[in-house]
Amino acid sequence: MNKTLIIGAGGVSKVVLYKCAMNIDIFGEITLASRTLSKCELIKNEVKEDIGVDINIAKIDADNVQELVKLIQEVKPNIVVNVALPYQDLTIMEACLQTKVHYLDTANYEHPNSAKFEYKEQWAFNDKFKNRGIFGLLGSGFDPGVTNIFCAYAQKHYFDEIHNIDIMDCNAGDHGYPFATNFNPEINLREVSANGRYWENGEWIETKPMEIKVIHDYPEIGKKDSYLLYHEELESLSKNIKGLKRIRFFMTFGQSYLTHMQCLENVGMLRIDEVDYNGAKVIPIKLLKELLPDPASLGPKTKGKTNIGCVIDGIKDGKKRKIYIYNICDHEETFKETRSQAVSYTTGVPAMIGAKLILEGKWGGKGVFNMEQLNPDNFMDELNKQGLPWKIIEMDV
Ligand code: NDP
Hints:
Elements: E1 3-7, H1 11-22, H2 24-27, E2 29-34, H3 37-51, E3 56-59, H4 65-75, E4 79-82, H5 89-99, E5 102-105, H6 120-123, H7 126-132, E6 135-138, H8 146-157, E7 161-171, H9 185-192, E8 196-200, E9 203-207, E10 213-218, E11 222-229, H10 233-240, E12 246-252, H11 255-266, E13 275-277, E14 280-282, H12 284-291, E15 305-316, E16 319-330, H13 331-338, H14 342-359, E17 367-370, H15 376-386, E18 390-395
Parallel strand pairs: 1-2, 1-4, 2-3, 4-5, 5-6, 6-17, 7-12
Antiparallel strand pairs: 7-15, 8-9, 8-12, 10-11, 11-12, 13-14, 15-16, 16-18
Helix pairs in contact: 1-3, 1-14, 4-5, 8-15, 14-15
NADPH dihydro-nicotinamide-adenine-dinucleotide phosphate binds near residues 62 and 142.
């Protein structure tokens, strides 16, 4: 029987646990470990009540490699699924290396002291993973994750050469709060308040935050203001997609979100450095995270849909072609199934699918891989079966 270790007990983790429990024949004995044991207990109880599956729980500080190694040696998992924060990627990868266990995550490593993310440190594990004969899967969420798979699927079945990719991410959900983020507030605000960046003709072009806006028509949602951001899948896709000339990433934001963010930034609440307050050291963005609603608590309140997909053009059989591959996910439906809103759901389901394909032996290899380097067909089939069906439409060139 397989054994699965899942690290982190936040919004995304809950969906991963529900979905692994629904596929218990593959995941076998599941252990959930995180910093706050009471959060593991809550998920354990909900999974037992709703799915009828028992899981083990444990307390772990995932910043500590020795603690991780000890836990992995006790649990003896076939795979470690990292759904803690991007800060823990390197320590968990190191522990997997030492214990020779496969690794999966949903977000690129970020250094706590600089709001910047790149694959350099994680790709540096490639040779070490190869030598130990283990498999590391990076970014198995929705974006990165499913968006990479959409591109790989388009490359395999729809194009001889891809020229342009626009990844379009719309969350049209309404949670009723004046301001809240749909995943970890600290990670989310660091991402959207940073400079934008896109890749064109072999070069990175930097923009000011929210400098480039397009109005995009999202199927089943309608037209929305969408802003160019830098997003981590651009780094790997710009290397791995044949013939690519340009790749960009856009995300929708409502005016209220942007006004709040601007105001918080102006008053210094997005700062990531330490501030002295009455002798105590405070990091403003961490304090803000404590004040904002926990994304895991937004589930019962959120209504509306997400639509995330890729608009891709290029050449097929000597002719120009343009397609749009997307998934639509309904916040209320995902809450009924997993007591979670759609942003956690669209991340947690692909994390489970990546782990399932590894445990089934359908995906594997030695080294560290981004999603688009693997066969997209299995993953696309699983998306349809596990709650994230997709559509492809042909567009006018
Ligand atoms: P949450 O903040 O809700 O959950 C993070 C969890 O990790 C918490 O339970 C937290 O513990 C735990 N954790 C943090 N630090 C440690 C540590 N040192 N040791 C052990 N556990 C720790 O975040 P989300 O669930 O919203 O996001 C999870 C991951 O998913 C993030 O990496 C995020 O960037 C990624 N993500 C990826 C997306 C994609 O499409 N690819 C989209 C959305 C998110 P505690 O409970 O004590 O705070």
